[in-house]
Design goal:
- It is a single chain.
- This protein has a three-stranded mixed sheet.
- Helix content is about 50%, strand content about 5%.
- The protein is mainly alpha-helical.
- α2 crosses α4 and α2 packs parallel to α5.
- The protein has ten helices and three strands, in the order ααααααααβββαα.
- It has two domains: about 120 residues, no CATH class; about 80 residues, Nonspecific Lipid-transfer Protein, Chain A (2-Layer Sandwich).
- The chain is globular, with a radius of gyration of 17 Å.
């Protein structure tokens, strides 16, 4: 595996840039595009944008209250919070919130230093791919996030890639040993997080096994 090359300062800068880049993307969308289904199952573009504004705003009390409300299902909790927030704020307000918190170091309780960056990079794909937008994450950031996801049990990366070798075709990154799966790093990011949309761009003897693990 190619080790992450980002320093702590690099990560902070990448988070800021990713928030501002996504805010610019969202601000340019026509109103109807906000209702487009994203790559995250059950989430619209507007829901994804709303979710990304919670990172610097949720407190321990908020998380505990929402966890109880969602019967301690993490997926249900994050979805429900995002949907309620999407209904509470206009698209313009959500864009403004992303911009005003761009340089914030605050992150969700129980999350690690790379989690906000991972969230932004993956959700930018969730938004951009259905709208036909180019993948804009810089290569060094994509490599750092790919390495992080490959070892992140909560996100399912180790389970999905077990016994396979994943190799990016557009950046210097690979992980694992076994039947080969090759493709653009952004598509590898998608399948590591369980998004089938990344499968079409992948080639190699390991794709069939990987497809069975991507749900």
């Amino acid at each position: 595996m190619t080790p992450p090359a980002l320093t702590e300062q690099d990560v902070r800068a990448a988070v800021r840039d990713a928030r501002l880049r996504l805010a610019d993307t969202l601000a340019a969308l026509p109103r109807e595009a906000w209702a487009t289904p994203s790559l995250a199952a059950g989430w619209t573009v507007r829901d994804v944008a709303a979710h990304l504004t919670t990172t610097t705003r949720e407190t321990w009390a908020d998380v505990l209250r929402e966890a109880v409300r969602a019967r301690f299902s993490f997926d249900r909790m994050t979805h429900d919070v995002a949907v309620r927030r999407a209904r509470a704020f206009t698209p313009g307000q959500l864009v403004a919130q992303l911009r005003e918190s761009a340089a914030s170091d605050r992150r969700m309780p129980m999350s690690g230093p790379l989690d906000p960056l991972m969230d932004l990079v993956v959700h930018a794909l969730d938004v951009g791919r259905p709208l036909g937008l180019p993948d804009a994450t810089p290569p060094d950031v994509a490599v750092a996030v790919a390495s992080y996801l490959a070892g992140n049990r909560l996100m399912g990366g180790p389970r999905r890639r077990a016994g396979l070798r994943l190799e990016a075709t557009d950046v210097d990154w690979s992980v694992g040993a076994g039947p080969l799966v090759r493709g653009p790093v952004h598509d590898l990011l998608l399948v590591l997080t369980g998004r089938p949309a990344g499968l079409a761009a992948l080639t190699g003897d390991g794709v069939a096994a990987l497809r069975d693990r991507v749900r």
